[in-house]
Amino acid sequence: MKKMKLVSFWLAVFSLSVYGWSLAGVLPDTGQTKCYDASKQIACPQPGEDFYGQDAQYAGEPQSYTLLQDGIMVQDNVTGLIWESKTNDGSVHDKDNGYTWYDSNRETNGGEDGTPGDGTDTEDFIKSLNSSNFGGFSDWRLPTVKELSSLLNNDTSAPAINTYFFPHIRQCGYCTSDTSVKDSNLVWRGYFWSQYMWDTPITPTAKSDRFCVMAVRGEAYFTNNFVDNGNGTVTDTSTGLTWHQEINVNKVTWKDALSYCENLTIAGYDDWRMPNVNELQSIVDYTKVNPIDGLLPVMAGANWSSTSANAAYAWSVGLDSGGIGQ
């Protein structure tokens, strides 16, 4: 969403405030290290100056990876997840392989199987990894939308990922295991080449489309646990973040949203700030039609994050849908 806009097409924007940035080793940082105004990169502002409080000024848990077994897998040292490394060798791991989304298990497919293929659907792909005991493991699976999102690096683009550890990332949608609860024919996908307003990194798309796939293994990503503090705030004990229970319903620019959050004093705290895109997405539950916990406020449309998509646009999260866009 353009930083100078009060309303981007039909999407109203507002700010949601959060204090604390000890992420308990769960949420990787977005990777953003540069600061921007509404149109260009700038020197990071000082407290009290316009555009102070953006993503680059609050460091989270740095993204950290380790290559395993000569690089056939990548371990995320923050989330603990282990990812399949894509290749360029024509094997089952080749980056150019495409798959339709298919899950024959009605308990996990959201009510719609998807499109089967003769060795070219996602279920076949995952079965092939597990039957071959790839990397010594037989518990490979598709990632959830939050797990795939955790790989996005907002300090680079095209692709927006650490290419040293993930060198073979295609310009295509990477599918997740999450069916859209609002339309069982759609599945959430991630896109690492987003740099223009029509490129949305996280959005639902038809299960019949062809996808890239990057398998993952490990304990499923964190589950939110919200606690009402009884003082107008809610703490998510899974991330260590505390959220303001009220929203600023006024339509504001990105600059004004940053300032609004920085100048709040609530529940005895004066270190409130605007959440980055990973933090804002963290409160979304993609398994529910109403994806935000009842303890938190929600308003239809896009909601500012402190993370810039590029010089003129910032990432926003639809808290009524879970989509991420500019």
Q: Could you characterize what this model shows?
A:
The protein is 9% helix and 21% strand. It has 326 residues and is mainly beta. It folds into 2 domains: 1-61 and 222-326, no CATH class; 80-220, no CATH class. It has a 5-stranded antiparallel β-sheet with strand order 15-16-17-3-18.
Main traits of this protein?
single chain; 326 residues; mainly beta; five-stranded antiparallel beta sheet; four-stranded antiparallel beta sheet; 4 helices; globular
Summarize the structure.
This protein is mainly β.
Question: How do the helices and strands line up, and which of them pair or pack?
Answer:
Blueprint: E1 7-8, E2 11-12, E3 18-19, E4 35-36, E5 41-42, E6 65-68, E7 73-76, E8 82-84, E9 99-100, H1 122-131, H2 145-149, E10 174-179, E11 186-190, E12 202-206, E13 210-211, E14 216-217, E15 226-228, E16 233-236, E17 241-244, H3 254-262, E18 272-273, H4 277-282, E19 302-308, E20 314-318, E21 324-325
As a whole number of angstroms, the C-alpha radius of gyration is 20 Å
Shape, per Cα inertia axes: globular
Global structural class? mainly beta
Uncertain spans: 5-14
Mean pLDDT: 88
* Run of helices and strands: EEEEEEEEEHHEEEEEEEEHEHEEE
Please report the total strand number as a whole number. Answer: 21
The largest β sheet comes out as: 5 strands, antiparallel
Strand order of the largest sheet: 15-16-17-3-18
N- and C-termini, Cα separation: 4 Å
Fraction of helical residues: under 10%
Task: Work out the count of structural domains.
Answer: 2
Count of helical stretches = 4
In terms of DSSP E residues, the strand content is 15-25%
